[in-house]
Amino acid sequence: MALDLRTSGVSVFLATANPAEATRFYRDVLGLEFVEDSPFAVVFKLAGAELRLSKVPSFQPFPWTVVDWRVDDIDAALAGLAAAGVDLERFDGMDQDERGVWTVPGGGAQIAWFMDPDGNVLSVSQRT
Predict the structure, then answer these.
(1) Beta strands 65-70 and 121-127: pairing type?
(2) Where is 2: in which H helix or E strand?
(3) What is the pTM of this model?
(4) How far apart are CA 127 and CA 107, in angstroms?
């Protein structure tokens, strides 16, 4: 039997040094479906995948986006994030509009960034 990763399930791994706060953020703020809290990871269900927050004593988050949610309506997504108390991030060199949204040069996508409690950079994007 040949390896076919196109049809295999996917797990996305992020790190957390504070599992309780990460659980609250992903479950209560972002509204992700909680699956389990094991000795090694906190797990959430994503559309067609799972998010595993690996429990670590400390780490340095990457300074770039590690998870992006593609949305049909970025304005609705931004309103939902704001209602949940999520602050958007602004980055030097990115020509973000008054909402905090960066439009990819030439169109194609609009992206807004935010961080989880551990400093992992997350985003929502509307792609045309």
Answers:
(1) parallel
(2) none
(3) 0.93
(4) 9
